[in-house]
Every structure is written in C-alpha cells, then in structure tokens.
Amino acid sequence: MGGEVLSVIKYERLGECLFVTLHRPEVRNAVNFEMMDQLAEAISLAGKDRAIKALILTGSGEEAFCSGGDLGEFHRLHTYEEARYMLLKMSKVLVQLAFLPKPSFCFINGAAVGGGMELAAACDFRFAKEDARLGFIQVRQAITTGWGGGSLLLEKLDSQKALEWLMCGRFITVGEAVQSRFIQAAYKSVTKEEILEMVNPYIKNAPEAVMAYKEMLIRKWKSSGLPDRMELEVDRCAVLWEKPAHLEAVSRFLAK
C-alpha cells in the first residue's frame, strides 16, 4: 500500500502499521464531518487488513495534533437534535477506534484540546511531544465531553485525577500526563522511523497473542456497558449544547 491522501486524512502503511495523519493544518486539524467519515474508513482498513498489526494516529504540521471539533462548521448547530447528530457520529468513530481488535497508538505532535483529547483517549497508548498543550477544556464552553471521551478517560485514569481534569478544564503539562500514566512517554522530535521503533515492543510478538490481550480489554468494556455509557455522555452534552451558556461561549470564541 502506498500513501493515500483523502481530502482531510492521510494514511500509509509503514512496516506492519497503518500510519494515519489528521490533515487539516490550516485549522489545527480540527474535526469536521468529512474527517469523521475518513477516520472511520481508515480505522476500518486497519481492522480488516491482516497484514496490519497496529494503527498509529498523529496530526499534520507542527502546531497541533487536534484542536477538537471545528467550531467554524459546528457553530451552526443550535438544537439538541442537531448537536446529538454530530456528537453521536463522532462518538461512533471513537468506539470504533477504542474497540479496534489491534493496538492503537496516538502520537500527540502538538496541541490536543477538547475533542482532540477525547480522540487521544480512544487510543490504547499515547506518546506526546514535550511541549504539547493538553486539556479537556469542554467545561469552559459550558458543555461536557461529547464524543464519549470522558467515559474513556475514567476507564484509563484514576477516577479522582480524571474528574479533576474534566471538571477544572485546565491545561495539563505533558509531564503531569506522563506521571498520571495517560501518556506513555514524552519526546522532543521523532521521525516516522523512530515512531515505528517506539511502537515495535508492543507489536513484535505473535499478533494472535497481542490481539488476545486486546480482546480481554474489549470484553471487559462490553460487560461494563462502556458503549452505552458513551452514548449517554453524548446525550448529556447535546442537552447542554443548546443552552444559552454554551451558545454564548461559542459566539465569544468565534469573535476573537
């Protein structure tokens, strides 16, 4: 497989990994409806191709991994129904990524805020550039995480730390994220070849055995109703989305 460039996603197979790059650098790789569809396509490809052992996700450019949802596109959504359609669509992508039967890795090459952190939380392992800016800042816009990322964070982090990050909406240093074990390791700068070297210890063994461990985790999540909890999170965010506090926060942001 050579490199493929969709309009807002780039992907290529490097070694035994599918390397997927969010490719909207002009808006800090913000997620829009088109990106949702193309992400789903790339994740599906990783799951179906037996020659692919893992999916690696990163962002285009030097500034951002993902700045969350594209408010330039989503600011037109005002009602519960409109918001829920968008939120549920992307939540399904996060479920697809989290429940991918193969390991997934996120290389946070720059800012990851709001929905960008939700997307990172859906991956199995995360690495981040030392100076990356991180934060679940949705509460600052009078909403919750809306793609299911809050539920994922509570699965992957100590609940007290997760609640602090979600409720305070503050920015988090990469050092703190490493200490909290949300980030596996920090890096200054890496090439794609070096990224493959960092991923190799996780995938070098028999893929059937590696995938069996991922299946154990997926069974746990299914038995605890994680997909249903993520959908409830979507609903709660959609309720808050149409409230004046959120609509006013979005207007202030767009006016900057």
What would you note in describing this structure?
With 256 residues, this protein is α/β, with parallel strands linked by helices. It has a single domain, classed as 2-enoyl-CoA Hydratase, Chain A, domain 1, CATH 3.90.226. Helix content is 50%, strand content 16%. It has helices at 33-48, 71-74, 80-98, 115-121, 149-156, 159-168, 174-179, 192-203, 207-223, 226-241, 244-255, and strands spanning 4-5, 9-14, 17-22, 54-59, 64-66, 104-108, 111-113, 125-129, 134-135, 185-187. The strands form two sheets. The protein has a seven-stranded mixed sheet, with helices on both faces. Helix 3 (80-98) runs antiparallel to helix 10 (226-241), helix 5 runs antiparallel to helix 6 (159-168) and helix 5 packs across helix 10 (226-241). The radius of gyration is 17 Å and the shape is globular. The mean pLDDT is 96. It comes from Pradoshia eiseniae. GO terms for molecular function: lyase activity. This is Enoyl-CoA hydratase.
Describe the protein's topology.
Blueprint: E1 4-5, E2 9-14, E3 17-22, H1 33-48, E4 54-59, E5 64-66, H2 71-74, H3 80-98, E6 104-108, E7 111-113, H4 115-121, E8 125-129, E9 134-135, H5 149-156, H6 159-168, H7 174-179, E10 185-187, H8 192-203, H9 207-223, H10 226-241, H11 244-255
Parallel strand pairs: 3-4, 4-6, 5-7, 6-8, 7-9, 8-10
Antiparallel strand pairs: 1-2, 2-3
Keywords: Lyase
InterPro entries: ClpP/crotonase-like_dom_sf, Enoyl-CoA_hydra/iso
Protein name: Enoyl-CoA hydratase
